[in-house]
Hints:
alpha+beta; Ribosomal Protein S5, domain 2; Rossmann fold
Amino acid sequence: MSDTxxxxxxxxxxxxxxxxxxxxxxxRQVLDIVVHSLYKDREIFIRELVSNASDALEKLxxxxxxxxxxxxxxxxxxxxxEIRVTTGEKAGTLTIADTGVGLTxxxxxxxxxxxxxxxTKAFLAALRENGGSNDNLIGQFGVGxxxxxxxxxxVEIRTRSWRPDAEALLWTSDxxxxxxxxxxxxxAAGSVGRGAAITIFLKPEQKEFAGKERVKNVLLRYSKYVPxxxxxxxxxxxxxxxxxxxxxxxxxxxxxKEFYKFQCHAWDEPLDWLHFAADxxxxxxxxxxxxxxxxxxxxxxxxxxxxxxxxxxxLIDDAPRGLLPxxxxxxxxxxxxxxxxxxxxxxxxxxxxxxxxxxHILTKRVIKHLDxxxxxxxxxxxxxxxxxxxxxxxxxxxxxxxxxxxxxxxRWDSSWKGDTKTESPASSSESPAxxxxxxxxxxxxxxxxxxxxxxxPDQKDIYYLVGPDRxxxxxxPYLEAFRARGLEVxxxxxxxxxxxANHLREFNEKKLTAADTADLDLGDAPxxxxxxxxxxxxxxxxxxxxWLKPEAKNxxxxxxxxxxxxxxxxxxxxxxxxxxxxxxxxxAIGRADAADAPAAGVKLEIxxxxxxxxxxxxxxxxxxxxxxxxxxxxxxxxxxxAGLLDNPRQMTARIYEILEAAADRKAQ
Length: 668
């Protein structure tokens, strides 16, 4: 390259001849890609240079462990292993220095003068040939250094190798296609110890990276867990250890809590945490936290994913897509994998199949952990469920792969009046929750497993009822038949619960069935209570049902039944898959079939023993007009209790008519 400039530095003091070399062929094109296309964020250059410095220190550490004499005679060997970052706000410079292995002239040419040739990659290859490994070495792509030219007008590297009698060298370039290597004279060489110091002369528009606070924010985001001291203008930044790489038996509860607040920028304490390591099928170290507060529940909008992805302690993505399913977005923490095949810029993962595998492993471990927590510490799990239960429900609806595994985590209120205290098995070291038997939660709930364990021998269905609260359900008509037969019913208070049951369909081969479904086989009717009265004669009963049909236009069929005890009538849903909740949802989204026939598939069942039914049967002969008012009101009351009365205005007007007629009768 005949037009290659000869670079010099006003701070350099060279002896001998400065050697100017072109970068490898087509370097201008490659540098253009690195500088303008490869990295999304310009601040990444700091992460790359710090990662390279960390690698250089790890190489030296390995050499010293392998052969104490091999790295013990170079100039400056007494220097501590550390990375020093120095800002020069006035001069517009940023310096990143390390006391690692340093570089010889040949290594400068080979590792920096050649694009995509990585000294770290070659070093790892040499280790593997000798049966060794070092997972702390992360710079495997060879282009990270060149990201500096996104912000640099000129770059200088002062370096001295760890090798005995190594010369001190100055490398300079403006990234335009060539670089210069100059030996330093004795005076200048005396200030250059083992390692490398990269000084970046920033472009005018990039002077922000000479500011301490700006650099500090970048370092704390990407490099706060490097394994050697990281100093910024003398201030140590990496004060918290990467706990996820430690053995969980060596970490105290207070350390977990401190790490949670530091890593997750949290003000609260974690409710629980999951710390695990796996070697197969992938090398994974994970530390996941379950917060104590759900901000979605507090109305702060949709929670953003809070589990960051690291590769050997260096941040790759603080919100990686697909790492966990959407319904686990409430989790916080760190996942670190040494097996990540990153793209050349270390910003994203290339292998979507590997991401899916990570997702699968992490999700299974979280589900298993929550299941163990529910057994080990019911009180802690009750707190989790109160805050984050709707995320589990979301998982049931949206995650078909894990639906069956999630089902045991569901909790609901129930008609069961017994003691739901659970015996606590032996403690597990994965969680901080206490293993001792816990007191009952203030809001007691039951699991599907609890329900199934109490089912009658011949019972085939898990029954549930939807209502706004316990009092409404208990005083409604639907529970009567189940209470009379001693059958437990789950209480669903949220609209989402109906969707959950509709997607889950069954648990342990027991169908989830709405208790307001028509034609349920509940077995023989219990003996009527004393004073319950005789049922209407069969002939009068059939006649009454026929007479009621014109007053029940929104009901498909009318018949006498045996499920009611205290109520005169009940509206039952004949469609197993279109519950009142689902019907209202379809109306809300404009489904015409639901809007035009809001009570289609509804059966009205009357109680032949109820006094009101007896009086209605008499009134249809003695006072037909008043009987029709009562009949229409009985039907609307049943539809209202079922959540199927879309327009109550007519019912309100009718009530006034009934009151007026009743007042007239009283006055006579």
